[in-house]
Amino acid sequence: MKKIFITALIFSIYTATLFAQVTKSSKMVSPQWSRAKAEGWYKQQAWVRGANFIPNTAINQLEMWQASTFDPATIDRELGWAEGIGFNTMRVYLHSLAYQQDPVGFKSRLNQYLGIASKHQIKTIFVFFDDCWNPDPKIGKQPEPKTGTHNSGWAQDPGRHITTEADFAKLSVYVKDVMTTFGHDKRILLWDLYNEPGNTKKGNESLELLTRVFSWARQTVHDQPISSGLWAWNLTDLNTFQALNSDIITYHEYEDPDRHLRILNLLKTHGRPLICTEYMARRNNSLFSNVLPMLKKQNVGAINWGLVSGKTNTIYAWDTPIADGSEPPLWFHDVFRKDGTPYKQEEVDVIKEQTGKK
After folding, report:
1. Could you tell me which residue, 306 or 358, shows the higher pLDDT?
2. 242 is in which domain, residue-wise?
3. Average pLDDT over every residue of 203-229
4. What pLDDT score was predicted for residue 16?
5. Which of 4, 50, 64, 209 has a CA between 20 and 30 Å from the CA of residue 167?
6. 56-70: burial string, b at 16+ Cβ within 10 Å, e else
C-alpha cells in the first residue's frame, strides 16, 4: 500500500505538461467538466450497477460487432437476464476495425444494440480502445476459443497497428464520427475512451494515443461525460493523465474490500464522482457479497466483469488455464450460465437485494 500512497502523492507532478497536450487543439468544443457539473450529472443518475457485457456467442469485440456475427437475439435474451436482477448499465467494448470495415453498418448495429438495451432499462458505457490481450486484431472470421483459457481471442484495439500519422487519422475519424452520431443519445451513460492503457507491457507507449483520444473526444459536441479508468497504480504518467482529464473518475479493482476501499478513498480526493468499471474476481475475494454493498454504501458505480459464460472463457482465471476445458471449481467471472441459470443463486440473491429487485 505504500507504493499506492506514493503514486497518489505524485499525481500532480506531470499535470501542466500532460494537460497542455490534450488542450492544445483550438477546436476543443467540449472542455473538461467542472467538478460541480460532474457532481450534478451524477446526482441525476440512478445508482450505476451492471456488468461488462459481450454476448456468449462472441469471442471478442469484432465477433460482437461485425455484420456476419452480430447477434441481436442473444443480446436481447441476455440483457433481459441483466434487467431481471436489477442491473441498469452495461459496459460494452467497440472495435475500430469493425467501424473501418463498414462505418454505416457499424453505427446502425450500435443503434440497434442501444435500442435493445433501452428496452431493458439499461444504459451503456461504450469503450473505444483497449490494450488487453491479443495485439494483432483482424477483420473477418475470428478464432475459436482455446480450451479452458481466459479471453484467448480478445482483441486489442488498435494493437500493434498504430505506427503512423495515417493510422492516427483513421482512429480520429472513427472516434469523432461515433461520438458525433451518438453524442446526444440519452441511452449512453458514459464514453470510456481507453481501457487499461499501458497493459500488455506497453507502459508509456500508450500515452500518445491516450492523449490523442481525449483531444479527439473534446473536439466533438456530446452530452455524456468522458473517462479512462485507472487500473495499475505504478503507471504514474498514465494515471496522472487519466485522473486529471476525465470528467468522471473510473477505475478497476479486483482485490478484497479492504484494499478496494483504500483505493476508493484515494480517488475520492479528486472531488469527482466514481464508477468502478471492473471488479469481481472470486479467487481474489472480490465478490458480490462483500464489494457490491460497499460500493453502494459509498455511492460508487459498480460494474463487474462478465454477465454470461461464453466464448470469452472468463470463468477461467487470467493465469490458470484448464487444459481439458472442465469447469473450474470456482468461476473467476460471470453471473449466468448460457441457459440463464445463475452460477450461484446466493450471489444473484445478493445482487437483487442491493438493486431493489428482491
Report:
1. 306
2. 47-355
3. 97
4. 39
5. 64
6. bbbbbbbbbbbeeeb
